[in-house]
């Protein structure tokens, strides 16, 4: 199930894995770098301190290595294995927030709320994300790109499903 709501984007997917494992691959740098991001891109995890106030810092590289984009999460809430809340931004190598390289009106910060619910050994992951402290132009840019963001997360979640299978 995927829909766009007033709070941004809402995505939900069922994974054939226990909740503790799904949570672990979101919070352990040894796992996270193996599945996060667009298909074919690599992710170098520079820092991953999963606690309120902690930060993830990483660099995604295109398949041919010609493009590199830095990004960060600042964790707001961590309730193992039930919930992760973080603010996501593009960044420079030091973790300073910068504008997205693809759109000058892309919001500087996106709040993501992820919940993990296990039923009969399967985990339903629900992710809600949307702009924080955004201007009207930034909200419009986010809404315009929502279908591409949804498609991108579909691919990322496919990679997550494959990674989870390899861990069981």
UniProtKB/TrEMBL annotation:
CDD domains recorded: SRPBCC_CalC_Aha1-like
InterPro entries, A to Z: ASHA1/2-like_C (IPR013538), START-like_dom_sf (IPR023393)
Residues covered by the Activator of Hsp90 ATPase homologue 1/2-like C-terminal domain: 16-165
SUPFAM superfamilies to which the protein is assigned, alphabetical: Bet v1-like
Annotated family: Belongs to the AHA1 family.
Protein name in the entry: SRPBCC domain-containing protein
Provenance organism: Paenibacillus lautus (Bacillus lautus)
């Amino acid at each position: 199930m995927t829909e766009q709501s007033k709070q941004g984007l809402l995505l939900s997917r069922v994974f054939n894995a226990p909740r503790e494992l799904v949570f672990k691959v979101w919070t352990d740098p040894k796992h996270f770098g193996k599945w996060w991001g667009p298909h074919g891109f690599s992710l170098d995890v520079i820092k991953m301190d999963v606690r309120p106030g902690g930060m993830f810092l990483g660099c995604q590289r295109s398949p041919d290595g010609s493009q590199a984009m830095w990004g960060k999460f600042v964790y707001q809430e961590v309730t193992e294995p039930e919930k992760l809340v973080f603010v996501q931004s593009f960044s420079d190598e030091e973790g300073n927030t910068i504008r997205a390289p693809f759109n000058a009106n892309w919001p500087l910060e996106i709040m993501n709320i992820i919940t993990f619910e296990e039923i009969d050994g399967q985990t339903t992951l629900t992710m809600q994300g949307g702009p924080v402290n955004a201007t009207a132009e930034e909200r419009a840019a986010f809404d315009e790109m929502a279908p591409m963001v949804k498609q991108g997360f579909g691919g990322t979640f496919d990679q997550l499903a494959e990674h989870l299978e390899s861990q069981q």
